[in-house]
Amino acid sequence: MASINKLSIRGVRAFSPDDEEQVISFCFPLTIIVGANGCGKTTIIESLKYAVTGSLPPGNKSGQAFVHDPKSIGQTSVKASIKLRFTNRAGNPMVVVRSMEVTQKKTSMSFKALDGIIRTTDADTGQRVSLSHKCTELDRQIPTLMGVSKPILEHVVFCHQEDSSWPLQEGAVLKKRFDDIFDSTRYAKALEAIRKLRLEKASKVKDLKADQAGLAAHKKAAEGFQEEMDKAREDLGEVDDIIAGTDEKIEVEEEAKERFAKVLSEIEAIRLRRDEVQQQMDIAQATADSLREACDEDWTKKHSEEELQSMLSGFDEKIADDEDQLTEKDKAYRRVQADIERLGDAKTRIHGDIAKLAAEKDQHDKDLRLRQRHMEEMGNKYNLELDGGTSQTQSTYGTLTGPYGTQQSMMSQATTGRQSVGVDSVATGRTSVGGMTGLSQETLVTINGDDMDAFQNAVTKKRTELQSEKDEYHAEAMNQQDDLVKKLSDLNAKTNIMNAEIDKLRAKENEAVKEGHRLKSAPAHTKIRKNQVEEAKKAAQKAFKEADEANNDPRMTVIPQEIASHEDKISALKADIEDDQSTLIGLRKNEEQLREISLLKRQIENEREVIVDALREQSAALYRYQVTTDIGDGTEDDDNYIFNVMEEKANSIEQKYLLNKDNLDRASEARSRIQHSVSEKAAMQQHNTRQLSNLRNQSAALRAPNRGVQRIETIISEVQKYEVENGLPNTVAVNVDPQALVQHLTTRVSECQEEHDSPDTVTRMMKKLKKLARKSNPDGTDAVVCPCCDRSMNATEAQVFKEKMSHLADPTDSPIVQSDQSRAEKIRKAKQLFTKWRDEVSQSMPDALDYKRISAEVVALEGPVQDNEDELKRLDQEVKAATKDIDEQTEEVDELRTLLEVMSRLRDEASKIAGKHTQIREKGEFMKFDGNIDSSRDLDVVEKDLGRRQREKEDLLTAVGDLNKESAVLNNRAKAASDMAANLEKRAKSYEEKYNEEQKSSVRRTELNELMTVTREEREKLEKQREPLKKQIKDKETDLKRLRQSNQHEENRLNDNLNNFSQAAQRLDDFNGKISKYLESNKSEALERLNDDLASHEAKVTEKKRTLQEMAPELNALRKKLDDQQRHKKNLVNNIKVFTQRAEEARLSAELEKITEELELIEGSDSSQREYNKACAKIRQYEDERNLAQGKRGGIKDQIRHLKRKLNTEDYKDIDERHRQCMITLGTTDECVNDLAKYYKALDNALLRYHGMKIGDINKIIRELWSLTYKGEDISNIALVSGAEGASKAARSYNYRVVMTKGNSQLDMRGRCSAGQRVLASIVIRLALAETFCLNCGVMALDEPTTNLDFANKRGLAIALAQIIASRAVQSNFQLVIITHDEDFVAMMKNELSAHANFPMPERYFQVAREESSDGKFYSKISAIDWEEI
Predict the structure, then answer these.
(1) pLDDT beyond 50 at 441
(2) Mean pLDDT, to the nearest integer, of 527-554?
(3) What gap in Å lies between CA 440 and CA 443, rounded to an integer?
(4) Which of 90, 237, 450, 540 is the most buried (most CB within 10 A)?
(5) pLDDT surpassing 80 at residue 198
(6) In a 3-state reduction of DSSP, which class is residue 103?
């Protein structure tokens, strides 16, 4: 008997997860747990229920609220554990441990049930054993160990307070609870399964009876086919004898043919060798003739071969000495030539350098003239004006003087604006550049630095004017175009709205037209009239009537009776025939034994031929897998020879099949691995592509018009434009880095220092110049000279000079002061502009850096994406190749499988041959013994009786076949009538459906026509309203086009003017750069050094050429001598080769004579060919005879094969075995149907009895407990009512309800009782269920049983529980657990228990309270208190 002993809780709900476990020990027979509301009493019931069933409390399906909240203790996870020590139904102590964990995530909590543990004690060793189980395994094992089902534990024993009134819940919930408690659903399913199985088997019996009748007819036909095949095999044996005789004759002639062919082969080989030697001799003669012709002199007649060899050996040494001497001389000659070539190359380089320097000087002179002419052209063409005068002096060609020698100094002077002010410039004032004309090419104007700076300033000023003019015109043109574009956009928007409406109407109209065409597209002959529908229905009714008549034909009942009568007669005849045959066998004992042996041998030969033919049919496949088709002849003593051969061949094919199948499996696995890799690569590619797309989207967002990247690019463009317009050096690059741009702008800001001279400083400087201009003449008079060049001035010039100096010294009107102030203002504005740009770039720097980073990531990611794409393509090709290889291997495996099946079948045939060999041997041994046969009839009488009975049997079999055919005709006729009726009914339904569809289509066409009319009118109205807008749009587009053309023409003109001017200015800069670069280099000294080097190299070349002239005669003489010696040596070699070829000719001539003699000595060389032809003719004659016999044999084999195919068809193959198996299956299935009917009836009756008995027991206990506990006068009794539902037994289920008896009436208690009555009724029903079903477990827990009870009913409940405890106390495992907050009820329980003396009182009760822990939080604590303190 099962019971619970001790429970420990940690980390569940209000129980602390960190403090020690809270433990409660359960007493016998009563355990009372008391505590205030919210202290954790119900948690004890929840823990007990979870420990034994694994079910969470109501409302905690996910389990998060069942474990202590991690947030309340500031942790991310909390672990909880419940340990229960109990005694199982066998009386053995056990402990179950369940653990849980709740983890706090960002926005939610997750619950996890950990693996549980069951601990027990081994009965044999006494040691503790712990077993770890999954939660689901524990949920199944614990109820089994306690001997109570899980529904009883959940809903009766450990029922939760919130779920304690479940007996009075709605019908569906109540039915499910009681079905689980009674376990009736499982038995109802079993009944339904038995019923379905019985119906299935009954249907199978009907099918088996039909199959048995067909198999019996096929069995008779198969016996006739077998007799025909035996006769054909006898004919085949005779033909085989003829073929064997011709094969022997052919073999004799083949031997003769082979013998003569061997002789002919020897003769042919000798002739071939003779022709080969003759060919070699002809070649040797031709070679000797060609060598003689190549010799300058024929020495073969004067000298022997040895003498010529001796001459050749000494001659080689002499030639070697001369060649060494020639080589040394030639090397020296080549060294001198190399020196001359090297000096020539050096001269060429020097000439090139001299020409280059001369060309550079000419180009310099040309650049000076071109610059002068270009400046004159720019001044005249663009009317440039210089600030100050132009100092011009005449000089000789090619001179350039002044303080500035390079373009860089000129540009520097133009940038700073600080230039010397000469006397001539002061005197001339503002002078046009156009005055520099009339200069010849021989004289050049010397342009000093001041003049060039003034000219550069004029160029810059002119460029600014042209750019401003272009920008102003462009801004005005764009304003005009924007006005027109805005008006045009408004008109287009209105037009687009109208077009959209028109398109919608047109689409709506087109859809209506299409639907109308579709409805009209049905051809006229498919339309159905109403009278056709009626006629089709009448035809279907008539066909069904005819089908019923065909199915009820009386002949279908008579035919099976006649067949059964004939089969009885056939069975009797078979018995008589068997008796006659046994008698005949005895009479023909010895004679028949020989005939049987002969027949067995013919059968063996025929079956062996079948095997050979089958192997030949498969020869191509067998040769492909290196398996021969030859099976040999074997020996008479070896019965299993053919079987062993076929076994070996079949095993070989099987090994190859298994090997290829294994290769196919490996290839499939390899392809699967590749496909898995493709999936991984594809996933990675998808991830990278998605990441790349996100990066590109981020990049595009950063490049939005209002983001920092666009602002920085705009600033770079503005900075470039500003620096080019103002001629600043080191212009910023287009792709400059933002940080470098900030550094560049910072540098520009630092360069823009506002340095300028004050007006007082200018006044003092002018006074100093005036003072320097005053000088005294030798005669003591005052004179005015130029402060720069000391040129004297006349009175007029002196007056102009004084006025100019006074004007320049005036602070309010001085051009110098104004120029300096203007320059300072320009620098200030530039500084402000650069500062603003720098600040904007700094603000936009984060976007730029993000854009740079993202761009780098995009570039870095594009490579892997492309590589991965290529890898995917490669893997796809590998998959395709692997698939192709697998397909080929699959074909090969299928072919081997088919071949293996054939070989297995042939192996079985060979096994039968081995069995027949054994029969032949046994019959031969049996014939050695003799016996006597006694019979009342002689052999002729027995044979006549046997023949007569066989004919009668054949006639009866024929009659049975005719009856079967007649039955088949009747069945086919009935089936055809049924099919015809079904088809006519289907056609009638089809006509009716088409008729209804046509009526609907007619109505729809009318609706569509009305819709098209309305839509067309609305569309035409909108099109009329659209025409004026189109005209306005066309006029505006014409005006816009005309304005754009005019603006574009003017902008092109201004652009051309500005570009031409910029090109002219750039060309001037190019001239200045070239001139400055030439003057900085010292090219005259380099030219002089090159001339000296050229003279030195010419002298060396002359000396070397003289040396070559001296060496040439000696070198030519040595070469002539060596050539003569080589010709002499070649002549010696050719003469020696002539001797060698003569010897070869003699050897080949002797060999040819030997071969001719050998050919003449061969015997039969003349008659061999004739005898060979004669043997071939005989072989052809015998082969023709054999082919005729084989043709006849093929016809017989075709007949046998045809009969075999018939016997191997689905109808006749293994007909005897199939007929026997069908009879067995029919008998066993029929018995199975009967047994299932018995099983169904027995189980149904048992279930009814069990259910009624349990309900009666429960109601009896309920009646007793209710009368004891309920103290009211209105309800005399309550009961559990169960009613069976369903018309059939298979669909039977039970509905449950609780009724109460009021007077003589029974009413449903649900909805008609008070809260207290509901609580009390639920407790009583649970107690009754526990009394009925908990036979192996005496535990019962009541959670807050006094809820909603008044004092009288509480006292009645205490009395009832005390009596239950007193009556059950004798049971050692009875335990009642009461959890309550009602101390009065506890006191009542103590008083009532004290009135009973037949059981011991509990020693203590338990109190649950919330106590403060060391961390300042309140947790549930369990304390044991002495019973007497209640």
Answers:
(1) no
(2) 74
(3) 6
(4) 450
(5) yes
(6) strand
Has this prediction a pTM greater than 0.70?
no
CB 42 within 8 A of CB 1343: yes
Of residues 289 and 230, more confidently modeled: 230
SS3 label, residue 1349: coil
The pairing of strands 1375-1380 and 30-35 is: parallel
In this structure, the number of other CB atoms found within 10 A of the CB of residue 144 comes to: 12
Closest CA to 717 of 734, 700, 731, 692: 734
Residues contacting residue 606 through CB under 8 Å, at least 6 positions apart? 233, 236, 237, 1200
Give, in order, the Cα–Cα distances in Å from 646 to each of 614, 636, 642, 886: 12, 17, 6, 30
How large is the average pLDDT for residues 540-559?
A: 77
**Under 8 Å CB-to-CB from 723, ≥6 apart: which residues?**
731, 732
1093-1132 residue pLDDT tens: 878 878 887 887 787 777 777 777 777 777 777 777 777 7
**Residues 478-518: pLDDT tens digits?**
888 788 888 878 888 888 888 888 888 878 778 877 777 77
* C-alpha span between 1101 and 612 (Å, rounded): 102
Do 988 and 522 form a contact (C-beta atoms < 8 A)? no
Asked if 376 and 436 touch (Cβ cutoff 8 Å), the reply is: yes
Calculate ∠ Cα 804-809-810, nearest 5°: 100
Q: For residues 904 and 694, give the distance between their C-alpha atoms in angstroms, rounded to a whole number.
A: 65
CA–CA separation, 156 and 143 (whole Å): 13
Tokens of 1230: 């029929």
Q: What is the pLDDT of residue 399?
A: 32
Instruction: Locate 1198 and state its tokens.
Output: 């075709």
d(CA 648, CA 659): 16
User: How much is the mean pLDDT over the chain?
Assistant: 78
Q: What is the C-alpha separation between 841 and 298, in angstroms, rounded? A: 104
- Torsion angle, alpha carbons of 1200, 1205, 1206, 1209, to 10: 160
CA–CA separation, 507 and 513 (whole Å): 10
Q: Which pair of structure tokens corresponds to residue 1377?
A: 């657990």
Of these ranges, 24-38, 131-145, 741-755, 941-955, the one predicted with the greatest mean pLDDT is: 24-38
Distant-in-sequence, close-in-space partners of 602: CB < 8 Å, separation ≥ 6: 233, 234, 237
Partners of 1298 in the beta sheet? Answer: 1280
Q: Which residue has the higher pLDDT, 1313 or 597?
A: 1313
Q: For residue range 964-978, list pLDDT tens digits in order.
A: 777 778 777 777 777
Separation of alpha carbons 52 and 42, rounded Å: 16
Three-state DSSP string of 1012-1040 = HHHHHHHHHHHHHHHHHHHHHHHHHHHHH
Instruction: Give yes or no for residue 205 having a pLDDT over 60.
Output: yes
Beta-strand relationship, 128-133 and 393-395:
unpaired
Instruction: Give CA–CA dist 791/786, Å, rounded.
Output: 5
pLDDT digits (tens, 9 = 90+) for 827-884: 888 888 888 888 888 888 878 878 888 888 888 888 888 888 888 888 888 888 888 8
Position 395 pLDDT exceeds 50: no
Return the H-helix or E-strand segment holding 148: none
Q: How far apart are CA 1396 and CA 1365, in angstroms?
A: 9
Three-state secondary structure call for residue 170: coil
Contacts of 4 (CB under 8 A, 6+ apart): 26, 48, 84, 85, 86, 87, 1339, 1375
β-partners of residue 394 are 445
Q: Can you tell me the distance from the alpha carbon of 820 to that of 824, in angstroms, rounded to the nearest whole number?
A: 6
Query: Is the pLDDT at 1374 greater than 50, yes or no?
Result: yes
Separation of alpha carbons 1348 and 392, rounded Å? 128
Angle in degrees, 0-180, between the axes of helices 708-725 and 449-520, rounded to the nearest 10: 140
Region label for 1311, one of left (φ > 0), alpha (ψ between -120 and 50) or beta (otherwise) = left
Asked if 933 contacts 591 with a C-beta cutoff of 8 angstroms, the reply is no
